[in-house]
Amino acid sequence: MDADADNHHELIKRAQSGDVDAFAELVEAHQGLVFNVVMRSLNNRETAQDITQEVFIQVWKTIANFDDRAKFSTWLYRIAMNALISHLRFTRAQKRGGEKADLSFDHNEEHRLDPSHDRRREGSEASSGDAEMERSET
Fold first, then answer.
1. Quick one: which of 85, 103, 92, 79 has its CA closest to 27?
2. Cα separation of 104 and 101, whole Å?
3. Residue 68: how many other CB atoms lie within 10 Å
4. 119 vs 115: CA distance, rounded Å
5. Average pLDDT score over the chain
6. Whole-model pTM?
């Protein structure tokens, strides 16, 4: 593991312990990547910024559950894609039903934030998500 990876691992551990400064460093390191992935799907800067913010709120709420045997970028990508899908579903429901859009939580989506579930699915989907995040880094 190189020095950057060691530092990254340390930031994750500190954030899992509630260290807000460590979490802020993780956000700084990854927010551009998340924004780019979301922006490519939406082509709407303001909405992409909102979704990126929601992603990191979700990351903060669930980082204690992150299993460091998984890649952080894969886990982060999955959260970003879930947030994007939720946004698209909500937007579509709003267009169809006006104010009757269903905002209820989909309990089937909860497992998607579970890193052990991602490891079971790590084949094509997780690796494609990781590749997407890595392409965004360049």
1. 79
2. 9
3. 12
4. 6
5. 80
6. 0.69
The single residue listed with the structure tokens 């169809």 is 96
**Residue 15 CB partners (closer than 8 Å, separation 6+):** 22, 23, 26, 60, 63
CA distance 36 to 137: 9
Nearest to 34 by CA among 65, 1, 57: 57
Domain of residue 87: give its range.
Answer: 3-137
Task: Read off the pLDDT band of 96 (50, 70, 90).
Answer: confident
**What's the number of domains the chain is made of?**
1
**Where do the H-state alpha helices sit in the chain?**
3-16, 20-42, 45-62, 72-97, 107-110, 115-120, 127-137
Distance between start and end Cα atoms, the chain: 21
What's the token pair of residue 134?
């890595």
In CATH, what number is assigned to the domain containing residue 37?
A: 1.10.1740.10
Whether 55 and 83 have beta carbons less than 8 Å apart is answered as yes
What residues contact 127, with CB distance under 8 A and at least 6 apart? 74
Q: What is d(CA 95, CA 66) in angstroms, rounded to the nearest whole number? A: 35
Nearest Cα to Cα of residue 22 among 11, 10, 8: 11
